[in-house]
Design brief:
This protein is an all-alpha fold. The chain is 50% helix and 0% strand. 2% of the residues are buried.
Amino acid sequence: MVTTRFDIEKFYGKTDFGLWRIKMKALLVHQGLTDALKGDLSESSTTDGEESSSDAAERAKMMEKTHIAIILCFGDKALREVSKESTA
């Protein structure tokens, strides 16, 4: 199995946020976390309006992975500014 590692320069607040955002989106898509970019995954449910516990757990895990991936790509100063935020 081949693994590919992508390094994205951390965002410190001094560089172009637009370019950083494009790179982050590409990274999240590559990691299979695209659904997390579409909004709150907790609103999804099955056709009868109920959600299985395994689906809910999978969505929660995906949101957590996405959150952590974004946090790891912030520099210390920028991270301090956004650390208290719960949503984008």
